[in-house]
């Protein structure tokens, strides 16, 4: 079944599912130096890629957490996507297991950094 909404509409809905009421904050404010960045994130990243029908949103979110853990270069994005993983139904235990598995592929420093961020997210408001 095809989604007849525009990429922008799909993207906004996807971001709302991941980031909840703070979805507009996740985009940052690049309007002064990179005004097209919000459109790229909403339309392409969330509207075209994250909303594809091949995987459910919950699975995509855990994959995103694993990738950001392995990269170890995007703590702000990891924090947001950890919150999204909780919001989409992953438990803290499941998320921690996914992060620990990254030690094999991404190394201990990346894993320890992600665990520190997860601890912060899990202690925050609305954490499960």
Would you kindly provide a written description of the structure presented here, covering whatever features stand out?
It is a single chain. It is globular and about 40 Å long. By secondary structure, the protein is an all-alpha fold. The chain folds into two domains: 7-54, no CATH class; 56-128, AhpD-like (Up-down Bundle). It has seven helices and no strands.
TL;DR?
This protein has 128 residues and is mainly α. Helices cover 70% and strands 0% of the residues. It is built from seven helices and no strands.
Core attributes:
7 helices; AhpD-like; mainly alpha; single chain; globular; 2 domains
The ordered H/E elements are: HHHHHHH
Low-confidence stretches: none
Q: Count every helix, treating DSSP H or I runs of 4 or more residues as helices.
A: 7
* CA gyration radius, whole angstroms: 15 Å
Whole-number tally of structural domains: 2
Q: Output the structural class.
A: mainly alpha
Query: Which second-level CATH architecture of the largest domain applies?
Result: Up-down Bundle
Shape type: globular
CATH topology of the largest domain, by name, is: AhpD-like
The CATH class of the largest domain: Mainly Alpha
Task: Look at the structure and name the CATH superfamily of the largest domain.
Answer: AhpD-like
Number of strands: 0
Q: Could you describe the largest sheet, including whether it forms a barrel?
A: none
Helix content: 55-70%
Span of the ends, CA to CA: 33 Å
Mean pLDDT: 91
How much of the sequence lies in strands comes to under 5%
């Amino acid at each position: 079944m095809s989604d007849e909404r525009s990429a922008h509409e799909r993207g906004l809905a996807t971001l709302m599912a991941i980031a909840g009421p703070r979805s507009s904050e996740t985009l940052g404010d690049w309007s002064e130096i990179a005004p097209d960045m919000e459109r790229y994130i909403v339309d392409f990243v969330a509207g075209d890629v994250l909303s594809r029908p091949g995987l459910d949103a919950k699975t995509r979110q855990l994959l995103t957490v694993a990738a950001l853990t392995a990269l170890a270069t995007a703590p702000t994005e990891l924090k947001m996507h950890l919150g999204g993983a909780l919001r989409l139904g992953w438990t803290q235990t499941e998320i921690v297991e996914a992060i620990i598995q990254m030690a094999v592929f991404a190394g201990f420093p990346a894993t320890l950094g992600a665990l520190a961020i997860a601890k912060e997210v899990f202690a925050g408001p609305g954490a499960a």
